[in-house]
């Protein structure tokens, strides 16, 4: 497959209203990059089936290998992600027996622990077992709504809960076999440098020249202000199938960059 191209769709009216900060996308970007993937686009849409469907089709039209949605998997009426996916892809929405069993077992455990008042699978709880045909449930070790993994025309669609603890719990446990399957053994490394220099524009040519000679290493400078006391931050990052190769690529790019900056009298230290 080569480098896995990923796109993320964060779903929820609360995100668009500014009531909730979308930390899930930031976390997923770091995880996917660390696995060797390439995140090419991130979208935020509300709890609207047409908007969700448009976003999903847009990702598929660009040939994304992995599309991750977050949010909209719960028992309430506005949790419509899986229904919207089924509608957008013209797939039947069916009750998944495995998902239903996960939900029943989870609520029984919560009842026995005293966290819910009754263990039965009520209609709102049963709703969380409605999956697009072909979707596979992934156990949620933190919450109650199973995640879903669906293979569709050569792409994978992964739907995760919006609660960060649940999303991370699934990613780190139930999803591991799938991640190993599509990403293989991947390594990621990054370092951040601190430059005693306050003018980002004056080093742009150096960064561009070094980056072109080290195309496998991502380089990015960041500045928030001007001034003698301002320190620029420069990040170097790389990913690959070999930790040795990744480390070597960064070390070579770092050595080259340090020499170029030193020729301008710019001091560099690790941030």
Characterization of this structure:
By secondary structure, this protein is an alpha/beta fold. It is built from ten helices and twelve strands. The chain has helices at 13-16, 23-34, 49-61, 81-89, 97-112, 123-127, 164-172, 176-183, 204-213, 243-262; strands at 5-11, 38-45, 66-70, 93-95, 130-132, 136-138, 147-152, 155-160, 187-195, 218-222, 232-240, 268-270. The radius of gyration is 22 Å and the shape is elongated. The model has no long low-confidence stretch (mean pLDDT 91).
What's the structural blueprint in terms of helices and strands?
Layout lengths: L4 E7 L1 H4 L6 H12 L3 E8 L3 H13 L4 E5 L10 H9 L3 E3 L1 H16 L10 H5 L2 E3 L3 E3 L8 E6 L2 E6 L3 H9 L3 H8 L3 E9 L8 H10 L4 E5 L9 E9 L2 H20 L5 E3 L1
Parallel strand pairs: 1-2, 1-3, 3-8
Antiparallel strand pairs: 4-5, 6-7, 7-8, 9-11, 9-12, 10-11
Short description:
The protein has 271 residues and is of the alpha/beta class. It has helices at 13-16, 23-34, 49-61, 81-89, 97-112, 123-127, 164-172, 176-183, 204-213, 243-262, and strands spanning 5-11, 38-45, 66-70, 93-95, 130-132, 136-138, 147-152, 155-160, 187-195, 218-222, 232-240, 268-270.
